[in-house]
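Re: Re: ligand-bound prediction request (bumping)

Still looking for help on this. To restate: I need the protein modeled with xanthosine-5'-monophosphate bound, output as structure tokens. Inputs repeated here so nobody has to scroll up.
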Amino acid sequence: MHDDVEKVLIDEDVIEKRLDVLAECILEEFCGRKFVVVVILKGALVFTADLLRRMPIPLEIECINVASYHGATESSGQVDFLDAKLPPVGGRSVLLIDDILDTGRTLAAVGQKLREQGAEMIKSCVLLCKDKERAAEVEADHVGFHIGDEFVVGYGLDFRGLYRNLPFVGVLKEKIIRNPP
Ligand code: XMP
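Reply:
Sorry for the wait, this slipped through. Here it is.
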């Protein structure tokens, strides 16, 4: 699997250290307030598991399943909600976690849905933020790393369902994208 990777963008040690700081900042932001974490599946799974273990406070975890890439390396432009029911966030403070902020459509669409569900306050956190113009007007409150506009995998992020279990964030070889395994 590692052979399919052209370059490592962010290695394991760097992610570990950054997560320590990120967790501290989020705890400060919520400042003793009880909150529910809403994880956007599946990409934010690995990041969230590591981040929340650095936050030894009472919190609940809910998941929301959306899709916008459909096996490609560019957003389809449409965010599909795959669950029959949305997380019960009415009147609650929410920490919304995603793997990456790219076009912004996902974070904007999920944030909107949670507000419609009556969430009292929503703060967002992403592992990665692509520095580019967004299709939807949204930014994350907490960002792990800013990266350029290239397709990345690993640490939860996939290409056609694979590579989520790589311990680092990297870029795939062009030939893998052209001829997927
Ligand atoms: P948007 O464009 O809605 O993107 O901000 C958010 C969702 O799209 C997926 N995404 C990626 N997945 N490598 C991936 O593996 C990428 O470079 C990438 N960019 C966006 C991801 O699921 C994210 O939640």
